Amino acid sequence: MSAPTVGALPTAPQLLSAFQGRRFEDRELLRSAHALAELHARRAQVRDVALIAEMDCRRCELVDDINEWIAQEVPQHRNGASLHTESLGAVVDRMARSWVDANQVIDAEGARSGNTHKHWYQLAELVDGYTDLVADVAGGRRRLPEQ
After folding, report:
1. Where are the domains of the chain?
2. φ, ψ dihedrals at 10, nearest 5°
3. Residue 37: what are its φ and ψ, rounded to 5°?
4. What is the distance between the alpha carbons of residues 19 and 36, in angstroms, rounded to a whole number?
5. 114-138 and 12-20 are packed helices; what angle lies between their axes, rounded to 10 degrees?
6. What confidence tens digit (pLDDT) does each residue in 62-81 have?
7. How does DSSP assign the chain, residue by residue?
8. What is d(CA 98, CA 108) in angstroms, rounded to the nearest whole number?
């Protein structure tokens, strides 16, 4: 049995679980989200400019994969729906980076650090924004940019 979604879109908790490496194998978008988190984690440890550029190219491919999946799987309501400023793939990529950053800071500085609080607060804001976005897309109140 698969976890609940908003329309065909995964919920924010499903994305966070995918970033963490749990319950993502059965869903294409969640596999891409997991791969984005892995790339961000590796990217933070690499100093080789060529390798960073290669990772960024792979991230762009994963963002495009998410956007293509959305275009095929989620009907876009064009009449009266306001346009979101970035693609869902870009939103998921930002969430993956924020999740990695928040985890790295808590590991380095501990749970009581002001910097840790700042990073987890930023992630929480992205989670709230994603939750609102998928509800609006599923409800036809917002549409995503075309590729």
Report:
1. 11-143
2. -70, 155
3. -65, -40
4. 8
5. 130
6. 999 999 998 888 877 667 78
7. -PPPEETTEEPHHHHHHHHHTSS-TT-HHHHHHHHHHHHHHHHTT---HHHHHHHHHHHHHHHHHHHHHHHHHS----SSPEEPSS-HHHHHHHHHHHHHHHHHHHHHH-TT-HHHHHHHHHHHHHHHHHHHHHHHHHTTSEEPPP-
8. 15
Fill in the amino acid letter for 145. P
The first and second tokens of residue 68, run together, are 């293509």
52 within 8 A of 43, measured Cβ to Cβ: yes
User: For residue 62, what are its two tokens?
Assistant: 């994963």
Torsion, Cα of 13, 87, 60, 130 (10° steps) = -20
Q: Which of 66, 19, 65, 13 is nearest to 39 (CA)?
A: 19
Is 130 a residue whose pLDDT tops 70?
Answer: yes
